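Bit of a strange request maybe. I'm writing a small parser for structure token strings and I need a real example to test against, not something I typed by hand. Could someone generate the tokens for this chain?
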Amino acid sequence: MGEVKHIPVMSEEIIAILSKIDNLSYVIDATVGLGGHAFEILSSFPRVRLFRY
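Reply from user aminoacidic:
Good idea to test on real output. This should exercise your parser:
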């Protein structure tokens, strides 16, 4: 079985929306799957606490 490749969609749009929130402290990722969006969120907002569901 080969390596699973996952390319998250709309990451730029999600980061743009989250960027508009003052004092962003917490994010819930209800679609954590393989972690593509979670990685992008934490890379863009290193002080955010991310909860996965």
